[in-house]
Structure formats: structure tokens, C-alpha cells
């Protein structure tokens, strides 16, 4: 894999050219050394050998696919579709990306366009690229009235990092409100995750103590006070709070169905991205526990019924990202049942302890490994998946 130094250097150049460095940063983690991936609908014989609950939506090469009852279905043509999220009524939010801008749409669960929520190119004839914008990582608030997204404002010359904005559903960007301010020349703030409390989780790119680009998961309870020209984000009243350390290099937060556990990817300055879990009480994270440490993990997504976590990762180094499944027992094994040592006597005091038996060796722990669902495919590692029951 490309070294962290070359990755950061390449990112800096791409940010100057396009202003969407964070998107490219994630995309560069997939190489093109392997053969061209197959389309999911042409995959043989998988994934029918293993069935996931509900319907999972994911993207490959700009097309949206659904996986249900062990079969893939192509929902849209390969036309720039990416970054999925759920919309009420089993519909989807999706980004449609072109060469100079991107917009957020509502799609039916079968891929039909229902509504366009942003208009990031004013007119077809407009040749001023500064008048065009990028919307990424759409998510709805819990009350379903507000669209959170990463948006490329404010722009200052060639430095166009993404910040988190909140726009009324059915409104325009002029009615939107800035929630975070990104650090210059980093790529910005991405992956907003609204909470039921009204607070917001998101990923912030910044420079760590060693002056290398890293990502942190942040929490803000209100729109942050704007700031410009700083090399480090301020903290305190009116600003957000980091939940992870720079040396952990964490991003892509995903909450369990009960909202008490966060899955994320963390690199810990290594050449892989760990699938890491931590308890979450709404304001802080508990101790970290990495459950996958030997893969390049991307886009962890919880099953709606809490039965496991799906994620993307290459099967071999340099190959395309495949779909994997980690059953719940792999990261949350049941506690052993207590063994009673005394029993009450009928109508009397507690009886003598049960005579001890010959001790036996404890059985070795059962190691549950992730299950590879697909073969020879190449899903978009920068595109979150969406999952409905």
C-alpha cells in the first residue's frame, strides 16, 4: 500500500487541484493492480452461499446495487452514484458526482430518482467553476427535517476544504447553517452522523503533533463558532470536542442499533485500518477494542437487527474491496453462566457445598473469523453502505 508519507503528499496536491481531498484520501486506499472487478450481478457462485439479514445497499463504479436474500440487483446505471444513507420509508439518500460538482438526491429503494435536494451547478452554461459546489456524505437528522452534509464552503482561493452544513429538507443552501469549520489544507470535515440528542458526530482531518495528516472523530452539541486561518481546531465552549486521539487516526464512525457502541476504522499509524469498537454514552467513548487488525477495513455498517457488522476490505493486498461479515459472537461473546456451589435444603438452611468434581481443562476459546461474502468484486471504499431490515 502507498506509504503514509506519499499518501499525505498526494493528498495535498489533489486538494489544491480539486478541493475534495478527503474524498480522494479514502479513494487512494484502493489500488488497481488486480484484474478489473466483476459486476456484482455477474458474480458466480457467491454471495448466495451466505445470506445477510434485510437489504444492504452499496456501490460499485458509480452504480448502486442491493443485496437481498443472497442475490445482487443493479438499481442504477454506472452514472456517478455514491455515498448512500437511509431516508424514511425505506428510500435512500445518495450523492451523484460529476466531474465538476455533486448533488444529493432521494432515490426509491429500487433506484428511481424521487427528488433532488441540492443544486450545486447554477446553470448548465455557467463556466465559472467557483460557482459550482460539492456535497458529500448526506445524513438526515433524527427529526428528519434537516439534511447534514459535507459542503465546500467557505472557499478561500485554492484552499477548498469541506465543512459540515445543515440544510432544511426542501430548502436551499442559502437557508443552510454552518456547523463546523475545517482546518486549512487538510481536506476538511466529513462523515456527519446526527444523534438523537441533537448533537453531531463527524470526522475531522487535521495535522497531528508530528505534523502529519490524521483524522479524529469529533462531537459537537451545537453549530460551532466560525474560525479561519488556524492550524489546529479550538476547543471549549462553542466548539466541538475530540473523542479520539490524533495517534489513533480514526474515522468513519458508525453507531450500533441501540446507539451504545461505536464502530470506526483506526490506523494507529500502521499500514492497515483496524475495525475498532468502543462503548458510547452520548458524549464520550469507552476503551477501544480492535476486532479486525489484519485488513484494510472500510465503511463498517451495523446490521439493523444487531446480529453483526458488514464492512469492506480487500481479500488480498492490492485487490478490490470485497464485502465481509463479522457475526456478533466475534466481538460480543456471551458471558459464561455462573455455576452454583451450594443449594438450599427443602425447608431448612443451606446445605453443604456440592462436592467438587475432578477439575477439567477449560475449552479453548472459540475464534470466530469474519466471513467473506463476495469474490472478485470491487466495491467503492469511499461510499458508505445503507441497510434496511
Give a topology summary.
Blueprint lengths: L3 H15 L2 H7 L27 E6 L2 E6 L2 E4 L6 E7 L3 E7 L4 E6 L5 E4 L18 E6 L5 E6 L11 E6 L8 E2 L10 E6 L5 E8 L5 E8 L20 E2 L7 E6 L5 E6 L7 E6 L9 E4 L5 E5 L5 E7 L6 E7 H4 L39 E2 L13 E3 L1
Helix pairs in contact: 1-2
Instruction: Give the overall silhouette.
Output: globular
- Based on secondary structure, the structural category is mainly beta
Strand order of the largest sheet: 3-2-1-24
User: In this structure, how is the largest beta sheet organized?
Assistant: 4 strands, antiparallel
Strand portion: 25-35%
> Residue ranges: pLDDT <50 for 5 or more in a row?
1-33, 339-360
N→C terminal distance: 36 Å
Quickly count the helices: 3
Q: What is the β-strand count?
A: 24
Helix content: under 10%
Calculate Rg over CA atoms.
23 Å
What's the order of the H and E elements?
Answer: HHEEEEEEEEEEEEEEEEEEEEEEHEE
Overall mean pLDDT: 83
Q: Overview of this structure, please?
A:
With 389 residues, the chain is mainly beta. The chain is 7% helix and 33% strand. The chain contains three helices and 24 strands. α1 runs antiparallel to α2 (21-27). The protein is globular. The two termini are 36 Å apart.
Features:
389 residues; mainly beta; 4-stranded antiparallel β-sheet; 24 strands; disordered N terminus
Structure summarized in a few sentences:
It contains 3 helices and 24 strands. It has 389 residues and is mainly β.
